[in-house]
Design brief:
With 496 residues, this protein is mostly helical. The chain has a domain at 227-495: P-loop containing nucleotide triphosphate hydrolases (Rossmann fold, 3-Layer(aba) Sandwich), CATH 3.40.50.300. 57% of the residues lie in helices and 5% in strands. The chain has 24 helices and five strands. The protein starts with a helix and ends with a helix.
């Protein structure tokens, strides 16, 4: 081996080691850079191509798809790439192609992690039985695969399977030896199983344990968020609008677990509506300015509402925001008259929406605060997504600040925001659906009453629920568990 080749080989090996290390630590930006560098040495390495493709799926889908297609061209039996391609085709609306790819992967001898990912694909596609089968097969191959138990619990009741329920309890005996992320998933999965069995004491003890583990790894300070909301309310008083005439956007906002996925599914069942899901297109369209009054209110480089931002929010700046946003949603819009955007945290930007999009629709999803708080507490959100959801008191404080800001927007922009009450939709589905469509300027369509038959992928925590006809089992559930939710009630006070 020449000295040059030996040097390159060692450099490639070191680069690969770095990429693996960064991935294990969740340092995706550095992992991506390392993967790209390694592929300069070995451009046909399918394992590294797969790692890079998985990292690019959300932010550079075309590049990710090209990588997966290159992998399957070299190795048609690469199940990881087939499942990834299936998910991308489903996202692009090519359901038949996606399902064919998924079924192709299913015919292969799959290891447990790939079976789990295939199950997630089927769950998002609304095929709960297929999903449950994949998760069960993953557990059969790897009996201590906690993530598969967790996923199975999202489409069926684990408590009804005595063997799996017992296996979870047995694993919990060694929970002290687990890494916190793995243990928190186990605690949450057991919490759900005990709640299904009717043992609220054990359920809430496990919920608390799961959230305590996650809270210890976060750095959420409720005082910082409360202060940021105070500054928005104090600073944002101007209502002058830009010139954008588009009525295409429908912004669906509110708290998680407030019925927003239901509203989105109803609207997207209409033939004149498409949706972009929960993506940060609006945030990407807004320029960044330093926030002197609330410097810790967001991660570095993430835009916030500040004095500097508002001073620069000229009519031209408003139009630039609108045009960039519309360009980002063009691909999802296709020929649709309306396009829903279900990034719930856009509630922070309602003032900007009202000014930049004079003709856009804004749907504020609301639900009984205690029911909503309970559902947030019982939901295992992605790591770091909502650190305030790991403490009952923090949930109550967050909800109260959110309510204060929404009251400010309602006062500043009267008549612009439509309130979609979850309980009203449950009680009077057809009338509330008619009201919703009328507000959005859409003609009546019966398909909106059969929203659960819509075949588009759903990736939120409500993926399984919105595949069912409307039901009211969760209305008033917060009162059933009120003794466990006292910290939420205390923080909400008279707003409950």
């Amino acid at each position: 081996m020449s000295a040059r080749l030996e040097k390159d080989t060692k450099k490639a090996a070191a680069t690969l080691k770095n990429a693996r290390g960064f991935l294990a630590q969740g340092r995706t930006a550095e992992a991506e850079t390392a993967c790209r560098l390694f592929l300069q040495f070995d451009p046909d390495n399918t394992a590294v191509m797969l790692d890079l493709g998985l990292m690019l799926m959300s932010k550079q889908p075309a590049a990710a798809q090209a990588l997966f297609e290159s992998i399957t061209a070299q190795d048609p039996r690469n199940a990881n790439a087939l499942v990834a391609l299936a998910r991308m085709q489903m996202d692009a609306g090519a359901r038949d192609i996606a399902l064919a790819l998924g079924d192709q992967a299913k015919q292969l001898p799959l290891p447990a992690p790939v079976l789990n990912r295939l199950g997630v694909f089927y769950r998002e596609a609304g095929l709960s039985e297929n999903a449950a089968q994949c998760f069960s097969e993953a557990i059969a191959k790897q009996p201590d695969f906690i993530a598969a138990y967790h996923a199975l619990g999202q489409v069926t009741k684990i408590s009804a399977d005595a063997q799996k329920f017992r296996a979870l309890q047995d694993m919990h005996k060694n929970a002290g030896k687990m890494q916190p992320p793995q243990r928190s998933v186990l605690e949450y999965t057991l919490a759900r199983a005990w709640q299904e069995s009717g043992d609220a004491d054990k359920a809430f003890a496990h919920y608390a344990a799961a959230h305590d583990l996650r809270k210890s790894a976060s750095h959420y300070d409720p005082d910082i968020f409360d202060h940021y909301i105070d500054t928005i309310i104090a600073l944002f008083t101007d209502t002058a609008q830009g010139t954008c005439s588009s009525a295409r956007p429908i912004f669906i906002i509110g708290l998680p677990r407030s019925g927003s996925t239901l509203i989105d599914q109803i609207l997207c069942s209409h033939p004149q509506v498409n949706g972009v899901g929960e993506v940060a297109f609006l945030q990407e369209s807004i320029p960044f300015y330093p926030n002197a009054a609330a410097p810790d209110s967001a991660s570095s480089g993430v835009p916030t509402i500040s004095r500097a931002f508002l001073d620069n929010l000229t009519p031209a700046a408003l139009d630039a925001i609108a045009q960039k946003y519309l360009a980002l949603t063009d691909n999802a819009a296709k020929d649709a008259l309306r396009v829903t955007d279900k990034m719930l945290f856009n509630y922070l930007w309602v003032g900007v929406i009202c000014r930049a999009f004079p003709n856009a629709k804004i749907i504020h999803c609301t639900r009984d605060p205690l029911d909503c708080g309970l559902s947030i507490w019982q939901t295992y959100f992605s790591e770091g997504l909502m650190p305030w959801a790991n403490d009952l008191g923090d949930i109550g404080r967050y909800m109260r600040s959110y309510q204060r800001l929404m009251a400010h927007w309602e006062k500043l922009f009267p008549g612009r925001i439509y309130t979609a009450k979850y309980e009203a939709m449950i009680a009077q589905q057809e009338q509330e659906t008619r009201n919703l469509l009328a507000y959005c300027g859409l003609p009546w369509d019966e398909a909106c009453l059969s929203f659960h038959k819509d075949t588009r992928p759903v990736k939120t925590a409500s993926a399984h629920q919105v595949r069912q006809p409307l039901y009211g089992d969760s209305v008033g559930k917060g009162k059933q568990y009120a003794t466990y939710l006292q910290d939420i009630s205390d923080k909400l006070g008279s707003d409950l």
